[in-house]
Structure formats: structure tokens, C-alpha cells
Input
Amino acid sequence: MKDFNGKTVVITGGASGIGRGLAEKFASERMNVVLADIEEEALQKAVQEMEQKQYSVHGVITNTMQKDSIENLLAKTVEKFGKVHILCNNAGVASFASQAKGVWEVPDADWKWTMGVNFDGVLSGIQTFVPHMLEHGEDSHIVNTASLAGLLTSGGPYGVSKHGVLSLTEGLVQDLKANKANIGASVLCPGFVNTNIHDAERNRLGDASANDTEKSKVQADRIKGLLEAGKQPAEIADIVFQAIKDNQVYILPHGEWDEVVRQRFEAILARTDITPIGLI
Output
């Protein structure tokens, strides 16, 4: 995809973090930007701030765990701007209480919440928006946010969900090629980025208190420090934008982790064990 002026991008998790960085970048390229987020106050603030810059922006409250909410997102976007050309399935969460537990010990609620947002939300986005893109036939692109955790050893809900997003995107790329679709697809696998995912529980509905433990708070504080020392969302957005222009499938902004990723895959091919290395 080369022409962005006047086209429309939809970004889930768009009110903060990487999503907000992407929104600012696409808006600066004169795109119509639709921000989708479950956090109403943050969404309203993001829309207002972008409108003050004279950007073409629209906000839609969206719960990516619910497919009908994503279908509503498409309907609202089409009503406002007509067509969608870029979809960033970016919304993501992490449950820190589950990280110190064996996979058999993690509560079902943690699995359902993390997989529901991180994986099911991406799948529903693909199922909902690809038919629309195929129908209008114009140059389009989908970016699914995974994580370096999707390339490293990890058995908890976060890592499993990100491995799933990576595999799902690879399948999507092949299916789009097989159907000769005018749609590109990429999977974004960042390392530490200065976002507020350490506080993802703030948007958890129903059972948030299940993770309100001292151990989870310590883990969240540790991750917060690593995130704050990481790349800025604007840096990630610049890299993603160029990747879309280049139709690049794998987007790995943190080159300093390349050797760790290489070691994991070499261990797989060597049929040996590897010391677990994860982001969270």
C-alpha cells in the first residue's frame, strides 16, 4: 500500500500506547482515523486532542472480546468514512497474577480475558473487516499486534495469545495471496514499549479483583519500569508505517532481541531444551 491520503484506518486499543502512536502517525499522513477503545474517558480525550490538531478522527467505544462490538465498529466507520483501508488489530492486555503460576493453576477467567482480547479480538477483526476490504477492492492492509513474546518461550496466557496472533497472521497472509486479494498483512512483534499495559486490569470487567494480589502488583511494577525504559509509541508507529509501505510481513522493532529469537529457533531445530526467556 503506497497511497494513504484520504484513506481510512481503524485502530483498536487506539486511545493510548502503541495504538495512540499509530493514530498520530496515520493522521499526520492525512488519513481518516477511527479510534476504537473500551476505555471511554481515554477515548474521548484522545479524540479531542487529535481534533485540536485538525485531524480527521472519530471514536467508537469497542469491546474487542465481543464480535458484535467489532461489527458495530465496522458499521460506524463505514457510516462515517465509507471504506476501511487499514485495520490495526492492536488492543491487548496482560494478567500479571497468572505469570508466576503453572499453566494448570491459572484461573479460567485469566485465560478467557487474555485470550479474548489478545487473540479472539484479532480473529474477529479479521473475520469482520476482510470481507469489507475484499468487496471494495482497493489497496488495503491489516496489522496485527503480537509481541516478541510470540517468538520466545512462554506458556502463560499472554505468551500463548501472542503466539496465536503470529500464527493467525501467517495464515492470513497465505490465504490473502491464494485469493489474489489486494490486501497486505503484517504482524507487529515489539519488545518493551512505553505503554500502560502494566495497568491493563483497569479495563477488566467482572472479575478484576481475582488478580488483586501483592505478587501481581510487584510484577506489574517491575514491568512498568521496563516499559518506561523501552521505545516510545511514536517510534513503533514510524516503523509500522514503513512496513505497510513495503508490504513487510514480520515487524520486529527491537533488533537487540534478534539473537535471543535466533537462539530459540536454533534450539528447536537442535531438538534441545532452552532456558525460558519471556517479556513478562
User: Anything to note?
Assistant: The first strand starts at residue 8 and ends at 12.
